[in-house]
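retry 2 of 3: previous attempt timed out while embedding coenzyme A. Reduced batch size to 1 and resubmitted. Inputs unchanged:
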Amino acid sequence: MSRPHTVTLRFLAEPGHVNFGGKVHGGAVMKWIDQAGYTCAAGWTGEYCVTVYVGGIRFLQPILVGELVEVNAQVVRTGRTSLDVTIDIYAGNPRTSTMRRACHCVMVFVAVDAEGQPKEVPTWTPTTPVEQALEKYALRLSEVRRSLDQEIEGQLRWLDQQRPAETERR
Ligand SMILES: CC(C)(COP(=O)(O)OP(=O)(O)OC[C@H]1O[C@@H](n2cnc3c(N)ncnc32)[C@H](O)[C@@H]1OP(=O)(O)O)[C@@H](O)C(=O)NCCC(=O)NCCS
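retry 2 succeeded.
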């Protein structure tokens, strides 16, 4: 069965998306990222997926109300139960065909069963040079992430211990 490994959402940036500076709110952009990423992960796996990581998010250019927004999500790497999805957002005047890249990020999803336990995902095999480069990029990111997570874990544990225990707080 052939599964879609890419998803594109297209819509207009609406007045309700605006921030105090008159541009599209970063929170609205993050919601679009989440929606496109989930749709892509669910389409590829055929399963319910949860987000375990969002990173490398770059707001490259502001998006204006009334602009056409295109959110492209694509599977770039699969593990046993997880998959990495890159998101690229383009924006531009709907009267012209020119779009500029406004945002980029990487998300990691895990497919889960009815009990919320990780479930195996279908393997994504990159074929084009761009797909292969994106898989390599995702792998490098996961290595860096793991090493940074290990580096900071001790400090995070220390911060956890400074908080009152669940029972004490009630
Ligand atoms: C998803 C969840 C069930 C996984 O549980 P877990 O005990 O971490 O499971 P595992 O250790 O077996 O890891 C499962 C996969 O997640 C990956 N993973 C876990 N944490 C990760 C992180 N921070 N970054 C990247 N990948 C991660 C593991 O590498 C593994 O991938 P693989 O099977 O492809 O090798 C659990 O972390 C969870 O419920 N998280 C909360 C999800 C959530 O609420 N999201 C927000 C709303 S959607």
